[in-house]
Amino acid sequence: MQDLSSRQRDVFKYITSYIDERGYAPTLREIGASLGIRSTNGVNEHLRALERKGYLTRDGEKARALRPVNRMGRSLRLPLVGPVKAGKDPLSEENVWEQLNVDRLLVGAGNDLFVVRVGEDCPPTSDLTDGDYLFVRRDGLVIDGELMLLLKGDKMSLARRGADELGSSSLAKARVLGVVVGFFRKL
Hints:
It contains five helices and nine strands.
């Protein structure tokens, strides 16, 4: 890949940061507004240069279809969390056993992800078995139907958010650690 000008580097950094924060690419107008580029044609020139130099791919017919090339298939380092002590942050140093390399394609974009192993740390369910790794997004917002990782006392458990569970006394005493966004199973 060729070297970038300082302006191209700024455009590239903005695009990758935007994707990391939101999970999708910015529009041409958003790029221009953020970096003080007045016309979308000026933004397009920088994007064409990034494509030509091998830093970016895009589908010209779709909105927000920018993909930084050096990030495709890149792995993330996510903390593997062990048993969580009541009232403690799951990502506090005492709870993190190790850092795992996880392909971005398995968990998508975004921050605040961690991994929990089913079995010793979290009891199995009908869908999840001993040894599965759960990818969990720390999030206070849980939508009906999503699988939640809960902490009740010193025990982690899983429950699916549903209208009938909202008033459940067992859930009322539990703290939501996050939402399960995926899992990995070794065969």
